[in-house]
Amino acid sequence: MTDNPDAARPPRSRRRGSGRRALLAALATACLPLSACTAAGGDTSGAAAPAPGASAGNSAMDIALPQAILNLPLEDSSGHPAALSSFKGKILVINDVMTLCQETCPLDTADLVQAARAVQKAGLGDRVEFLSITIDPQRDTTAQLAAYRRLYAPAPADWAILTGPAQDLATLWHNFGVWIQKVPEGAVPAKNWLTGAPLTYDLNHSDDVFFIDGDGHEQTLLDGPAHVEQGTALPSALRSFLNDNGRQNLDHPGGDAWTTQQALQIVSGLVHKPIPLS
């Protein structure tokens, strides 16, 4: 579940505006034409994201991640250690996710996997790592995460799904300003798409994508649900798991929904190379 507009939500004091405003500010400061970010619903197939100038990556935030955050003991879906510090020198694209989200996470993940594939195809997979990190460690076991990753087979090598101890994940998401609220499951509970077990709770949460440069500095972010454009792979298991709100987000994305092209635009600025979306 995504964020509930009627619920009290802590302010994001460490950010400078919403994700879309931060992106626009970054592009404007770098003197980039806004037309480089294709409007929602446009055909971006085969288009290349132009490489912004060197200053583009530093124009929105430039917030150093604390070493304690970089060293949190995370692990990937194979159970291998995967602290953020282990990716030192790489550009990180981090999003919050839970595999049992029915509204926004499947859309966000689909767009980021599409971006990861484009980065890999451009020969930049050794410089960029896409990390989907759970907000729901109780249910997102390594087995659940591994099954989620297999839905995108063959999954790009530059995309990993991470979990870790609940308290450490709470510390991580508090640092990034991600809002999470545990709520009761609906009267007719959904069932885990993998195990078939009825769900006993849900999580309201913000949807965020963070872009970290090779020096461990947060540069900008996108927030809100993604716009899954035609040609983007959304696994059938996740498509059928969407609830009414999720299908609405998929079929009728809002005007502020972000796209794969926009994510690639930011990554292009950080690697200083154009990345075709194909």
What does it look like?
The protein has 278 residues and is α+β, with helices and mostly antiparallel strands. The protein has a single domain, classed as 3-Layer(aba) Sandwich (Glutaredoxin), CATH 3.40.30. The protein has 8 helices and 11 strands. The protein has helices at residues 19-29, 67-70, 105-121, 142-150, 166-176, 236-241, 244-251, 260-271, and strands at residues 48-49, 63-64, 75-76, 91-97, 128-134, 159-163, 180-184, 201-205, 208-212, 217-223, 275-276. Strands 2-10-9-4-5-6-3 form a 7-stranded mixed beta sheet, sandwiched between helices. A two-stranded antiparallel ribbon has the order 1-11. A two-stranded antiparallel sheet has the order 7-8. The longest helix is centred in the middle third of the chain and has 17 residues, at 105-121. The chain starts with 18 loop residues before the first helix and ends with a strand. The model is unreliable at 3-59 (pLDDT under 50). GO terms for molecular function: metal ion binding. Pfam families: SCO1-SenC (PF02630).
